[in-house]
Amino acid sequence: MGFFVTSLIFVVVGIIASLCTRICCNKGPSTNLFHLTLVITATVCCWMMWAIVYIAQMKPLIVPILSEGE
Amino acid sequence: MGGCCPPMDLFRSEPMQLVQIIIPIESAHLTVSYLGDLGLLQFKDLNSEKSPFQRTYATQIKRAGEMARKLRFFKDQMLKAGLPPTKSRRQADLNVDDLEVKLGELEAELIEINANGEKLQRSYNELLEYKLVLQKAGEFFHSAESSARSQQRDESRHTGDDALDTPLLVDQESSTDPSKQVKLGFLTGLVPRGKSLAFERILFRATRGNVFLRQAVVENPVTDPVTGEKIEKNVFVVFYSGERAKNKILKICDAFGANRYPFTEDLSKQAQTINEVAGKLSELKTTIDIGVSHRESLLQTIGEHYEQWNHLARKEKAIHHTLNMLSLDVTKKCLVAEGWSPIFASKQIQEALQRAAFDSNSQVGAIFQVLHTKEAPPTYFRTNKFTSSFQEIVDAYGVAKYQEANPAVYTIITFPFLFAVMFGDWGHGLCLLLATLYLIVRERKFSNEKLGDIMEMAFGGRYVILLMSIFSIYTGFIYNEFFSVPFELFGRSAYACRDLSCRDATTAGLIKVGPTYPFGLDPVWHGSRSELPFLNSLKMKMSILIGVVQMNLGIVISYFNAKFFQNGLNVWFQFVPQLIFLNSLFGYLSVLIVMKWWTGSKVDLYHVMIYMFLSPTDELGENQLFSGQKTVQLVLLGLALIAVPWMLLPKPFLMKKQHEASHQGQSYALLESTEESLQVNSNHDAHGHEEFEFSEIFVHQLIHTIEFVLGAVSNTASYLRLWALSLAHSELSSVFYDKVLVMAFGFNNWVIRIVGILVFVCATVGVLLLMETLSAFLHALRLHWVEFQNKFYEGDGYKFYPFSFVLHDDEDE
Question: Residues of the signal sequence (chain B) (predicted)?
Answer without folding.
Answer: none
